[in-house]
Automatic annotation (TrEMBL), chain A:
The keyword Transmembrane helix applies. This is Monovalent cation/H+ antiporter subunit D. Residues 537-581 are annotated as: Disordered. Residues 133-434 form the NADH:quinone oxidoreductase/Mrp antiporter transmembrane domain. The chain crosses the membrane at residues 6-27, 34-55, 61-82, 89-109, 129-154, 166-190, 285-303, 310-331, 337-355, 398-422, 442-464, 485-505. Keywords: Cell membrane, Membrane, Transmembrane, Transmembrane helix.
TrEMBL record, chain B:
Belongs to the CPA3 antiporters (TC 2.A.63) subunit C family. Pfam families: Oxidored_q2 (PF00420). This is Na+/H+ antiporter subunit C. It is found in: Cell membrane.
Length: 581, 114
């Protein structure tokens, strides 16, 4: 790996940090902030795409870049890892961030202070969470991400937002405490917080330490599930997302995917097939929890009568779908789930943005929908100030909005021809197919997942059709929603991304399969991260470069083989589980 | 000492959890703070408790984990304290904003009807 290319790994963290910090310093000059924000986010997207190509070009299942800050060995230092999974999510986050930023330029970025820096810090937290290779830095980046998300939820202020924000912050502070509890229990049991090191140590743990580790992992998992919005710890999600401003909500929908990502990464590293006695720990919980979340989300989709909450319910359904798919623990299903993430993130983001345009054009109280929404206390006085018409009604507006709404409905419900259908097919095919080919009966849980996915799709179709009829045939009789080009462009852009995924489904699925394969068989990941970097063996002798480090075993006696690739130094310095007082 | 620390964590955690579920925002924030203290002590405990151990190195001796305290949990606690402090301060601001906007200190922004 050429050195300058390896430094790309830290760019997705440094870039938004510097951009955000600069924006804080140049208080008050909004156009400059807009330019910096656009430049930073576009560059982030470009870097993320470049990293995705790099990760895909890497041989085998090994991560493309293992970036050791300060060149400390992984067990002691901070390590960033770029592999296919991380790069894919980086690209999605950057695309969503860019869309939200462009959308906000119409007027949302003016309704409160500091929108631009907060957006950058939010992206920094997201990127860091995807890249980090150790548990405690995951906590730190989670906190960066959450702190920024508090700002985004509260952006624009108003009673509804502050009330929802209060709940959101309290729940997430409690979840962060759970995160800390889980991480410290894992440290107490295994003596390390580096994810790769943990994966190497889990198979060899003593039974009592194993119990402690599993307890810690369960508590940690709860923290992630709260983030992902699993039933029964996801009730905060629709309220918060509905209260937030549209660009903020679009970006927040990525946060629930961070919970999913952390679960996927850690669960497969710690409790994958190679984990000995702990293999598959908690998988059934994910599966059942996912099914229950789909059920709850489906009911909310049907029962919800205002648009932002409908989008929130769709987030719940997609979280449940992903949890159930991951919990089934098959490589091919996980590949489908990754494809589903790539399709659902832009779709839900586009839906949140589209809703904002559509809501603007509706005559309050014009139809039953609006009346009942009023009755539930959702009509707010902010409408008068924030909902001011911006821009002019452009010709063909309604057709464009209708097409966008239709595309969102197809994507969220998982109907052909768009990528939502392909994603569901990619998950369900292997789930049913593998047993079918082997001749054995399909397990009951697979049937349940099938039923849940199909029924949630049906419910989404019903809800979207009802909403669409009310919106497009009911309330736009005399005044069309007014919008600017900068508002519709991100929606169309995100939807085109999904169209692109549909057209290029072959390469995308192949990428997802490679990413899932690497996640399910993390030996290469562990080896690449833990591989000892030779330090100066004797004073005056320069250490060989990174390429030399990969060529052979280091002088510290570290064997390159797994699972004993843990450097001896790390073993002796990390506190061993038996060393209790 | 183990019993004392365990009881301390238990009392802090228990009081914190109870306060967290109370309906007043001030109780919630105090509850979260107490819980954070309990968690910080817990992390500290995960480095194993030991009396009279040198913080890093004993004078004149070479370093070995058998002799000195585990520094990693201490670093974790420090980070957790800083982050917890910042987020609690942020929560305090939101709490005051909610009090100002809704006119009540109930967490739902309105008093429960009796």
């Amino acid at each position: 790996m050429r050195d300058w290319l390896a430094h790309l790994a830290i760019a997705p963290i440094l870039l938004p940090l510097l951009a955000g910090a600069t924006m804080v310093l140049i208080e008050g000059r909004r156009p400059v902030k807009v330019v910096i924000g656009l430049a930073s986010t576009t560059a982030m997207l470009a870097i993320a795409v470049a990293l995705a190509f790099l990760a895909d070009a890497a041989p085998g299942a090994a991560p493309a870049i293992v970036y050791r800050l300060g060149d400390w060995p992984a067990a002691f230092g901070i390590v960033l890892v770029v592999d296919r999974l991380a790069a894919m999510l980086l690209a999605l986050a950057a695309a969503l961030g860019l869309a939200a930023l462009v959308f906000s330029l119409a007027h949302w970025h003016r309704v409160g202070a500091h929108f631009h820096p907060i957006l950058q810090f939010q992206l920094m937290g997201l990127n860091g969470a995807f890249l980090t290779g150790d548990l405690f830095n995951l906590f730190v980046f989670f906190e960066v991400m959450l702190a920024a998300s508090y700002g985004l939820v509260l952006h624009g202020s108003g009673t509804a937002r502050v009330r929802a924000g209060l709940h959101y912050i309290a729940i997430n502070l409690a979840a962060s405490l759970l995160f800390l509890l889980g991480a410290s229990l894992i440290y107490g049991a295994a003596g390390t917080l580096n994810m790769a090191d943990l994966a190497a140590r889990v198979p060899g743990l003593a039974p009592d330490a194993r119990t402690l580790l599993e307890t810690g992992a369960a508590i940690l998992g709860t923290a992630f599930l709260i983030k992902a919005g699993m039933w029964p710890v996801g009730f905060w999600l629709p309220t918060t997302y509905a209260a937030a401003t549209a660009p903020a909500a679009a970006l927040l929908s990525m946060l629930s995917k961070v919970g999913i990502y952390a679960l996927l990464r850690l669960w497969l590293l710690l409790f994958g097939a190679q984990a000995g006695a702990s293999a598959g720990f908690g998988g059934d919980w994910l599966l059942v929890g996912g099914l229950l979340t789909i059920a709850f989300g489906t009911i909310s989709v049907l029962a919800t009568q205002d648009l932002p909450r409908l989008a929130g319910a769709c987030v719940l359904v997609s979280s449940g779908t992903l949890l159930a798919a991951i919990g089934s623990g098959q490589v091919a299903v996980t590949a489908g789930a990754l494809f589903y993430i790539a399709s659902a993130v832009p779709a839900i983001g586009a839906f949140f943005l589209l809703i904002d345009i559509l809501e603007r054009g509706r005559e309050v109280g014009a139809d039953v929908l609006a009346v009942t929404a009023e009755a539930f206390g959702e009509g707010d006085e902010e409408e008068a100030t924030e909902g001011e018409a911006v821009g002019l009604a452009i010709p063909g507006t309604l057709a464009l909005l209708g097409a966008a709404f239709l595309a969102c409905a197809l994507l969220l419900a998982g109907l052909p021809p768009l990528s939502g259908f392909l994603a569901k097919f990619a998950m369900l095919g292997p789930l049913l197919g593998r047993s079918g080919i082997a001749g054995g009966p399909v397990p009951l849980l697979s049937w349940l997942v099938l039923a849940a996915l199909v029924l949630s799709g049906l419910a989404t179709v019903i809800a979207m059709t009802r909403t669409g009829i009310n919106l497009f045939w009911g309330s736009f009789e005399d005044h069309l929603p007014r919008m600017r080009l900068t508002e519709i462009a991100p929606v169309v852009g995100l939807l085109l991304l999904c169209v692109g995924l549909t057209v290029l489904a072959g390469p995308a699925l192949r990428y997802a399969e490679a990413a899932a394969g690497a996640a399910h068989a993390p030996q290469d990941y562990v080896r690449a991260v833990l591989h000892e970097v030779p330090r100066r063996a004797a004073p005056g002798r320069a250490a060989p470069g990174r390429d030399g480090a990969r060529a052979g075993p280091g002088p510290g006696g570290a064997a390159p083989g797994m699972p004993d690739g843990v450097p001896d130094g790390a073993r002796s310095a990390g506190r061993l589980p038996e060393g209790g007082a | 000492m183990e019993l004392l620390v365990a009881l301390g964590i238990g009392v802090l955690g228990g009081s914190g959890a109870w306060l967290l579920f109370r309906p007043r925002t001030f109780q919630v924030i105090i509850g979260l703070s107490l819980l954070a203290y309990a968690v910080n002590l817990f992390i500290f405990g995960m480095g194993r408790l030991r009396s009279n151990a040198a913080p890093i190195l004993a004078p004149g001796g070479t370093g070995s984990l058998a002799q000195h305290a585990d520094p990693l949990p201490q670093a974790l606690v420090l980070t957790a304290i800083v982050i917890g402090f910042a987020t609690t301060a942020l929560f305090l601001v939101v709490l005051l904003a909610a009090r100002g906007l809704t006119g009540t200190d109930h967490v739902d922004g309105r008093e429960r009807r009796r």
